[in-house]
Bifunctional protein FolD (Paenibacillus anaericanus), 283 residues
Amino acid sequence: MTAQLISGKQISEEIRGGLRKEVEQLLSQGLTPGLAVVLVGEDPASQVYVRNKEKACQDLGFYSEVHRLPASTSEEDLLVLVDKLNHQDSIHGILVQLPLPQHIHEKSVIDAISVKKDVDGFHPVNVGNLMIGDDSLLPCTPAGVIELIKRAGIDISGKHAVVIGRSNIVGKPVSLLLQRENATVTMCHSRTANMKELTKQADILVVAIGRANFVDASFVKPGAVVIDVGMNRLDNGKLAGDVDFESVKEISGPITPVPGGVGPMTITMLMMNTVLAAKRLKG
Ligand code: GUN
């Protein structure tokens, strides 16, 4: 049996259709959502991500600025730029693309971004608000995972969700969001003993461990929902998820592909966060 495919591409298009209408309305009220993206250095994957964000802004009618800075940029100069963007009225969202060159402390830069313009949801205040369930700008990939599951018509409440991976960007926040949706959540990571015993109990399995094709059919309960957050570049240049899609789809329930699953949702959530930040800043 082959599982139902959850198309992040299609669901993203649906959400962006709604966003486009909302932006038209905001434009007519004199509010143009503005996003600034800062890229330091020439990491090839980051360049692609930044270009895609720029295209999404153009497509939705946002104002956008992309600041491409050399890898030699000092932390001080980057902080000066962040401060300028914090005070710039045409900008409602600021995203500094990670990873940064080694001589720049990521934490210092994230901490410097205005909490209200932190459309990545990485600032400690937004992370804390997520933890205690207060209103905050949510990190884009975890928010995209939840939106994808809901819009695929899957009920999260009461389900056992197992998350593989404990990163600050995906594993930890997606666990909190699943819990907020009333799932019972188990977290696994690279040091988990007997991982398969746990993953085989999952009604919903979210995989964000950063290892190509790590999860095969032996990890999965028949009929389970499988969400693959992995984006691994193979030696042959192809993109692979953390899930061995071909074997898992034979026994799983609804499953996301890579590419075309979680990836498009991340950018869509960034666009949603920028609209939300613009509305909140305008008051
Ligand atoms: N690099 C990889 N993913 C992300 C992300 O979601 N936000 C930022 N700022 N950088 C990233």
